[in-house]
Amino acid sequence: MTGTNYLSKALVLYDSLLNTCGDAFKLIFFAYDAETFEILKRLDYKNIIPVSIDQLETADPRLLDLKKSRSIAEYFFTCTPQVITYALAKFDIDMVTYLDADLYFYQNPQLIIDEMAYNSVLITEHRYYPPVDNHDHGKYCVQFMPFRNDLASKIVLETWKEQCVEWCFGYPENGKYGDQGYLNDWPEKYKNVVVSENRGVGLATWNKPGYRIFSEGHKIRAYSEEIKNEIDVVFYHFNSLKIYSNRLISTGISKDDKSLFKIVYENYLNRLSVKENEILKIAGCSRKDLLYPEWVDTQLVFFLKEFRRIFSPRTRDIIYYYKFLREYVWLP
Questions:
Q1: Domain boundary among 184, 219, 239
Q2: Where among 212, 239, 266 does a domain terminate?
Q3: Band (319; pLDDT cuts 50, 70, 90)
Q4: Are residues 34 and 102 in the same domain?
């Protein structure tokens, strides 16, 4: 599911799939708002199927009540098993793979799907690497999740759906966190759930210290500290990247990390800029008009809070502020 806040990222994801898969896929976009649905229809990308959130909420009317009591992010989490269930039923296809919008593929994802063999569901690990320790956010990441259209998948999805209706919030509590804390016991609970062993899956800021990324010809590769070997990067997860305005973006990493920025982020930001301009041209407005007020307020408060630190006389705060600024880039 995506909204105007995430649409440019989702379209960059789409382009990366075109580059790695050709036409051998369809991307079903569940549009959170009417603006997103209208923009997707006007863009008319041949491999994108837009679906209005109204369809999802009609299928399960409980979502309308939950929408009132949960934040936008929490509502997105709540809907994850719902969109998978809906897509499997509505489009009557053999398999649906849930994707987070902020992924970028360098290899054909069929490499990961092949790991399923005859199993029904595949999940991926965060692979947190010290000093990062977010284990209360779940061992597994809701980022890339193939589900077959079979009974075993439906059992997993039905349980997960009811759990997310019951509790799905943006903070950890008793082993739960959003939609993904529930995945912790899946490999033991369900015999048809398999965990990807591919170390090139889901590189992100939470496991960045464990990888040294480099380019080799047209490939993006990395040295894994965990297995002490080189790997092909299948996809990178831009989990910390935030868009504040038409041009101001926080990457979530410092530009002093020159290799990662040059090889991974620079290309992504350039593509993001193209998609942002394409969306704004169709929408006929500025980026701030497409941001949800709830997210604008949260991001603005955070930005101003960090900005004030420059007035602190303490050396460590001045250094912190410098690093904070180095995470920000201006799009052309």
A1: 239
A2: 239
A3: very low
A4: yes
- The number of beta carbons lying within 10 Å of the beta carbon of residue 263 is 17
User: Count of CB atoms within 10 A of residue 325's CB?
Assistant: 14
| Residue at token pair 């098993």 | 81
- Does 1 map to a domain? no
Evaluate whether residue 82 is within a structural domain: yes
Q: In what order do the strands lie in the sheet with 242-243?
A: 242-243, 248-250, 328-330
How is residue 53 written in tokens? 């959130």
Q: What is the pLDDT of residues 44-73, one digit of tens each?
A: 999 999 999 999 999 999 999 999 999 999
Q: Do 54 and 129 belong together in one domain?
A: yes
Q: Assess whether 109 and 222 both reside in one domain.
A: yes
In a domain, 2, yes or no: no
Phi/psi of residue 31, nearest 5 degrees: -85, 120
Give the domain extent around 173: 7-239
81 in a domain, yes or no? yes
What would the pLDDT profile of 251-266 be if each residue is shown by its tens digit?
A: 888 766 888 989 999 9
Distances (CA, A) of 76 to 30, 49, 52, 66, 318: 10, 19, 14, 11, 36
* Co-location of 26 and 153 in the same domain: yes
Average pLDDT over residues 186-191: 98
If phi > 0 it is left, if psi is from -120 to 50 it is alpha, else beta; for residue 10 that is: alpha
User: Residue 328: is its pLDDT beyond 60?
Assistant: no
**Which stretches of 143-285 are DSSP H helices?**
151-166, 186-189, 258-260, 266-283
Give backbone dihedrals phi and psi of 101, rounded to 5 degrees, phi first.
-70, -25
94 and 227 housed in the same domain: yes
Stated pTM of the model: 0.89
Question: Per mean pLDDT, which range of 12-26, 116-130, 180-194, 232-246 is the poorest?
Answer: 232-246
Count structural domains, the chain.
2
pLDDT greater than 60 at residue 301: no
- pLDDT band for 310, please (50, 70, 90 cuts): very low
Q: Which residues, other chains included, contact 194 with Cβ-Cβ below 8 Å and sequence gap of 6+? A: 115, 116, 117, 119, 121, 122, 123, 187
Within 144-257, residue ranges assigned H as helices are: 151-166, 186-189
